[in-house]
Amino acid sequence: MVGYRKYTIFIFCFVFLVVLAGGIVRTTQSGMGCPDWPKCFGSWIPPLSASDLPADFEKYLRKQDIDHTFNAFHTWIEYINRLLGALLGLFVLIHLVWTFMKRKTLGNTLVIHSIAMLIVVLYTAWLGKVVVDENLAVVKISLHMITALILAFIPLMIVNQLDKRASVGGLAISKEIFLPYLGLFVLLIVQLLLGIGVRQEIDVISKAAGYLNRETWLQSVGARFIVHRSFSWLILLLTVFILIKHKNPYFRSINKVIFGLVCTLMIFGIMLNYLDFPAIVQPLHLLFSLILIALVFGVLHKVFLTSIRVKS
User: Fold this and answer.
1) What is the pLDDT of residues 56-79, one digit of tens each?
2) Which residue of 67, 87, 147, 234 has the lowest C-beta tally within 10 Å?
3) Dihedrals φ, ψ of 37, to 5°?
């Protein structure tokens, strides 16, 4: 089932393409570029210019919270984001059909995983509708991001299940490796929640400032940002400990990737703090954060699956 495994990894990667697109939507304030859902200005293909707007376009523009004018750039940024989300749903549906057709070989566990992946995709799409209906409600946006992260977990679980079946003689993984990775995962989740809190504060501040003067946004954020910034050092220290202490051949490469992601995220944080909150860094910071959490989850799940055959 090499092709099936590669397709599952493709879906995992595509999830993060959608996450990046969503981050760009937020960074460019294009979230209400299409003020209605699932259509855009009442049409399945959005307008290219103001002359293409429908006769009743004003009822759509009234829903916006920026300048209530048509902006083709914002509209198409949001539309591409929705298009990528729809493609992801289609890819996941194909995955489910494929899994069901090969259920005798793959087993019921992977069928359940594939069904769960489709359910999460549909729930994420529904949340996207709610976000538009409620004019970019801050809490709903955060929940939308968290469900995307959960969606990324499922392909990793499927791949780990496939690898477990294909392995011969079991992996030689020490039980000691589980707790440091679990600690890192917990720290990353806490850091994510702190980051969500910071971003929610910035959403309020930036909206009040008319989305101008980006260099002043972080200055107005409370102590939560200081905690979020300082917390990254704990994550770095634990990552270095894992990199030095646990040298299992299987995890050596992934440990280096995790360390690289942590360092990159710290650099992004420094750029956001000292370079006037550059817009291009925001979606990259979100993207790399979610990839990091997903990879650590994948390692934890791998260790959990092989724990029955672990060598102490």
Assistant:
1) 888 877 776 655 678 899 899 999
2) 67
3) -145, 140
